[in-house]
Design brief:
This protein is an alpha/beta fold. It is built from 6 helices and 16 strands. Belongs to the UPF0173 family.
Length: 243
């Protein structure tokens, strides 16, 4: 297993869902889609709520918020999301006191982590009463831990020149990027994204959940070579972690 040596554990639960443990031992869950997630290992579905200190949401698609309400109610953990999502989540019976809404460019501190919301090029919708309901816009996050270890969590996005700005401002140690294609960028675009981000490590996600998500970590490795990117691809399987 690749060792980052930064006292931060990152576990991939499949698709776009991640659990991170801070140097202080606090749990952070990003985009909670667990029960309906066909690749999330069953034995982890109850453990991800233990010591949970914060839940982050990048956007409102079902495959990123499918278990948000239940987990928020069960744990009482603050839900960190774009401001536009707050009234919708309140209608879903998440306590307003739990909801922390902010917007792109803003930074908050929760669970000893400084989190800055970044741009992502993607939609953010749900179905309600047979209609598509628009809910803000998609986002990503830069997580800066107490030991200065920095993760850029891109969320669902295509490659964008904003990634170069993120690299210049925050110098991430690790990027977490979608590679599946069809709904997000593919592996080749992700390889070019790493040329902009310049992080020494990258974890691919949002692939393999369904046949339509065809990108692979091997393709990302080849794309990094194509664009002259010196980064290590950490190809986790659902349920695996890196620390």
């Amino acid at each position: 297993m690749t060792t980052l040596g930064k006292d931060v554990t990152i576990m991939w639960l499949g698709h776009g869902t991640f659990h991170m443990t801070t140097p202080e031992g606090k749990g952070i869950l990003v985009d909670p889609w667990i029960e309906g997630n066909p690749v999330c290992p069953d034995e982890l579905k109850s453990r991800v709520c233990e010591h949970l200190a914060a839940i982050f949401v990048t956007h409102a698609h079902f495959d990123h918020v499918g278990d948000l309400v239940e987990i928020a109610q069960q744990t009482g953990a603050p839900v960190i999301c774009q401001y536009d999502l707050v009234p919708y989540f309140e209608r879903q019976n998440i306590s307003g006191e739990q909801l922390v809404g902010f917007n792109k460019g803003g930074t908050i501190t929760v669970a000893d982590v400084r989190a800055t919301m970044t741009n992502a090029i993607h939609s953010s919708t749900t179905f309600e009463d047979g209609q598509i309901l628009g809910l803000g816009t998609a986002a990503g996050f830069v997580f800066r831990f107490s030991n200065d270890f920095t993760i850029y969590f891109a969320g669902d996005t295509c490659v964008t020149m904003d990634m170069q700005i993120i690299a210049d401002l925050y110098k991430p140690d690790l990027a977490i990027l979608p590679i599946g294609d069809h709904f997000t960028m593919d592996a080749r675009q992700a390889g070019y994204a790493m040329k902009l981000i310049r992080a020494p490590y990258v974890i691919p996600c949002h692939f393999g959940t369904f046949p339509i998500l065809t990108g692979t970590p091997d393709q990302l490795v080849e794309a990094c070579k194509e664009f002259g990117v010196e980064t290590q691809v950490i190809a986790l399987k659902p349920g695996e972690s890196v620390a």
